[in-house]
Amino acid sequence: MTTQSQPKPHKPAPEILTALKGWKTHSGFWLKAAVAIGLTSGLLLIVQAWLLANVVNAVVFAEASLADVMPSLWGLLALFLLRAGLAWASEQAAFHAAVQVKLAIRAQLYQKVQQLGSAWLTGERSGDLLNTLSDGVEALEAYYARYIPAMSLMALVPLAILVFVLANDWLSAVVMLVTAPLIPLFMILIGKGTEKRNQQQWQQLARMSAHFLDVIQGLTTLKLFNASRSEAQVVAQISDQYRQSTMSVLRVAFLSSFALEFFATVSIAIIAVLIGFRLFWGEMDFLYGFFVLLLAPEFYLPLRNMGTQYHARMAAIGAAEKMVEVLNTPNSPHPSLPPQGGKEQDVHPSSVLLPSPLAGEGLGMGGMFGVTISNISFTYPDARTALSNLSLDIHPNETLAIVGASGAGKTTLINLLMGFLQPQSGQILIGDTPLTAIAPEIWRKHLAWLPQKPQLFPGTVADNIRLGNPTATLTQVQAAAEQAYAAEFIVKLPQGYDTLIGEAGQGLSGGQVQRIALARAFLKDAPLVILDEATANLDRASETLVQAGVERLAQGRTLVMIAHRLRTVQTADRIVVLDQGTVSAIGTHAELLESSPLYQQMQAAYGGEA
Question: Looking at the record, which segments are called Disordered (predicted)?
């Protein structure tokens, strides 16, 4: 997952904006509630301004006493408290709307990543993807919690205020109509330049996150080769570039805020001067002039708020670019099967009748089925052919080993068998059913995968073993560890099965990590087990224990294994020799030593260590 991917072109802004607009539906009624509450508060503000203008007018010009204006003062107090409560409720509704969107988008991203599988992940950088799933999704909160409500209130509240201003002072209304469009106009003009900067900033943050994660994961290697100092300089350089990018965005943000405040202040000043002169000349009643003057700042406030929150929009566009790219990545096709009755309709793969071994839940060691690989071909996007018209039968309850030189197509074949990739031609049959007709989640319930470098997660030893069966009891976990030859070292750990281990199995040796992964496979009890060079990079003692566990795991199951060390496959029922994406030979170890020149070369070249 840490392979550096090639730079990808910018997504067009309309595609990102369409996605952001579509994601708004995940907010449910919360977003509408936030806007409705904000509009109600704006209408109450007009009532508040009218009461205040009446109180001031009564005290100054009508010489009213405190008792005379007390009802209005109590009304003002009630309005203050009510508007404060509405402001809090609007914030809460907007927050819940943003949370709903974030939960939905994060769930979609996780589901999409699972659908794309590990083959797609090998072309992505872990740090970039993690930044998208964490900080990128979090950056959407300000967009949905602040910018979207501000956009709606910008149109509704000033319009409501304008109606009352027009009824009391047409000249001030004209000034508002003329000056109000200047604020969003200059905001958009300035924001256009900031939009690209925000996208570049998010891309730099993604690259920086990916690079930092790569550095941390390879810290031991950097120390061994005395390259940590030079790498620290690279990190400092990348950090400084991100700092410059951030400051560039902030400069434009401050400039736009200044422009918005300037135009709003000048517009309010114009209205105040016009009202002041007319009051001085006696052309306007104080009550209406003061009422309009109280409303003038509130007329421009939603426009200024929208300008302030406009940067949330640009940040969301930058963050959503990678999300749109991930969500729009096409899945491997799963064609629909013809429905009963001949009617044309889509059939979900999970509704397809599966072979009897796959149809039942709780399938154990007795559920054997054959796999037929028929004339499959696969070519990678870089035009590199991995497999070419390959055919192979995997018999039930057999141990099948796959060997070959690097690039022969071993890993590609395994990825196709697990459903991570789909062949461009040919098909894989599970019993008599095409693999493409079986839902991936159903198919993967019936196979166990033991890779060369298993992934362990922070948590207890028991929790990591339970990944094979989350509902397993401690007794079942212990039994699986016994079968995998892992119980001996687990019981010697400080807290036994409750011992906490670090990221990627920190604190355990490679052989111990591999045996915990092997215990997962025992606990899952899947009928088909796939091993991808499970004993590579292990010392002889660890390899012996893992190999013994694998042989025990193979009993009563179909086992397909890739191996570099030929001595680990000598006991296999059959060995398949791949050469440039095709099957070169099939047979037992003894048969291939006599009949396969390529197998003989591998044996001679590596002395059994291939």
Answer: 328-348
